[in-house]
Amino acid sequence: MNLFTEIGVLPEIAAVLTELGYTAPTPIQEKVIPALLTGDTDRICLAQTGTGKTAAFGIPLVQLVDVQNRQPQALVLCPTRELCLQVATDLSRFGRKLNGIKVQPVYGGAPMGQQRDGLRRGAQIVVATPGRLRDLLDRGAVSFAMISRVVLDEADEMLQMGFLDEITSILKAIPVARQTLLFSATMSSVVRKVAGRYMQEPSEILIGPRNGGVDTIRHQFCVIASHNRYAALQRLIASRADMYGIVFCRTKNDTRTTAEALVGDGLRAEALHGDLSQSQREEVMRRFRARSVRILVATDVAARGVDIADLNHVIHYNLPTDTASYNHRSGRTGRAGRQGVSIALVLGHERNRIRNLERSLGRVFEQQQVPTGRDICDQRIHALLDTLRDMETPDHLAPYLDTISAKLAGLDREELVRRLLALQFKDVLETYGKAPDLNKLGSTGPGKGQRAGTQRSTGRGTGTRFTGFKINIGARHGMNPQRLIGMFNANRETRNIDIGRIKVRGDSAMVEADSRFADVIVTTLSGQIVEGKKIQVTISTDSRGRTTRPARPGRKKQGTIVRRRRVVSS
Predict the structure, then answer these.
(1) What is the DSSP letter of 545?
(2) C-beta separation of 155 from 184 below 8 A
(3) Does pTM surpass 0.70?
(4) Which residues form the DEAD-box RNA helicase Q domain (predicted)?
């Protein structure tokens, strides 16, 4: 028996919910569904993302529409196209056994003509982003004269994104005699202002503590030195083989370069940011949902509306500026009753911000250590040994066993195991075997742009001779030291080559690298495409034909002082 029927849901819809895996209503669904089915009072519902709010308002909307009337009767406003599409898909599923239900998504980044035609053909429920919907209203492409219910989904997100003017225009085009439902994770002053202006004596439904997080999320933080930020992120991901989550960065450039760095380190990551076209965004999300990508590196704006139930981690590469943003980020995990982990990378002076978050959310944040190199090696070795212990020998190997036994007859068991592990973990042991402890704030371990694999070196005391290479791309093409090293790590031929000083100018970059690999570097990197421009790499020489290198740290050169042990970008 489906328990949704006990709170007034039609058997046809309850049957669909059973097929979709909904066996019992969540707390927000228990409170909201009966209230919406039996009354027309305006409602403010405060609940975190992932608590089941889409079904809470979507089921009543589907159940209450007049299927004989093809005019829009209900409107759902969402902050992003991703959430718009997700909500429209869910509502269509809820009503698939009710003949005649039509849900029309309306969002930017897609042909307006197709959406206009869909509205003309008739749809009882419209799910829209504010910008595109106002465009259609201004063009007279849609009439809301029959709208009786409006849902503002993720209201705090929409208002934070600057949609107040669009929401105001849309609500003015809808009859005043309507039911308005506002769903929000937080009750900010601007949300309260909108509620006061456009809702009539709303009653409040509160799920969990006001402005608090959900119980299924563990909140953790690691204290790091600023130059170790990327290395700490890389180790957190490398140490958790089951990680499937989102890394939040502050800027589009950080998002792009961090994703490229992770890919260069052999991790399945992709960037999601505002510079991607709609088709590119959809392709990134398709791969992420299919788990061919397990780490999505995103800005706050780009990740709004990402609704994937089984994400188990969120990592804050930089702390957000306010509690509401932290709440929305963290709410990407711990959804639908599953457990999730939210990890923040913080500098020493940011500990007070963690304490402020604890007070605001009413949650305890656990301090965690950044995994050491030994931790990662142990984890990888134990995982392989467990796999070897539990696996069955494949039948197709049988014809070769005699040959294998004869070849290895001179090795005892211990030596064989040692050699197999050394072969399997060669790269891991080289990368992490002697890696510094990043939990010591004075650690000089790899930092931003200084990753496992290709390493930066000052060249002093290493025995490495460096050659300078000039590259015909620079800051104007989105290049920076971190991205440049990512290019080295993305190619096996240039991976694990010592890198010296880097200088990035507007249209070019200078990098010094191990002289022994000069030909490999020129051959491998030349011809790659960055921001539509083909890379050309040349060995830099002076007027006498001698190879040159960027200025040595701490020495004057042409009137410029290059700071010791720092990457200089210009």
Answers:
(1) S
(2) yes
(3) no
(4) 2-30
